[in-house]
Design a protein that fits this description.
The protein is mainly beta. Helix content is about 10%, strand content about 50%. The chain has a 5-stranded mixed β-barrel with strand order 1-3-4-6-5. The longest helix is centred in the middle third of the chain and has 7 residues, at about 60-65. The N and C termini lie far apart (about 45 Å).
């Protein structure tokens, strides 16, 4: 078995996606996703943002590019690759994600990277509302 380098991200697009074509005519959509996590620094919890460059290739890139707009909530699953280069005498490095799947989130109907509607999953709120076990504690969302 080979090594595994997979990423799953849920975050917001930092800018509109750019659709380009290679010399051989293959489509590629470039976009960036911001994620955040809470970390403790000293006695305080703070939010730290991370920014991930993503490439989506082929027909999926063409069909989804118009929906990949700044601020849109997305889930991305893909393979990680580390690009390394030297600039002004300094070694530089960036992690890039080649997407295998992109899900548009935050709307009534989620669309998969194939461009077809995906099955909607109930939200946590509606799933809890459907419970019939006498649980009456108020849920804060």
């Amino acid at each position: 078995m080979g090594d595994l380098s997979t990423a799953v991200l849920v975050g917001r697009l930092t800018r509109d996606a750019e659709l380009k074509y290679t010399a051989s005519g293959q489509a590629v959509s470039h976009f960036s996703v911001a994620t955040s996590s809470r970390v403790k620094k000293g006695d305080q919890w703070i939010d730290e943002a991370s920014f991930w460059d993503v490439d989506l290739w082929g027909k999926r890139a063409e069909s989804l590019n118009q929906y990949l707009t700044k601020g849109k909530l997305v889930a991305v699953q893909g393979d990680m690759r580390q690009d390394k280069w030297e600039q002004d005498g300094q070694n530089r490095m960036k992690v890039k994600i080649t997407a295998n799947d992109v899900q548009l989130l935050g709307s009534q109907q989620t669309t998969s990277s194939s461009g077809s509607p995906a099955t909607n999953t109930p939200s946590a709120k509606s799933a809890l509302a459907a419970r019939d076990d006498g649980y009456t504690d108020d849920i804060p969302w």
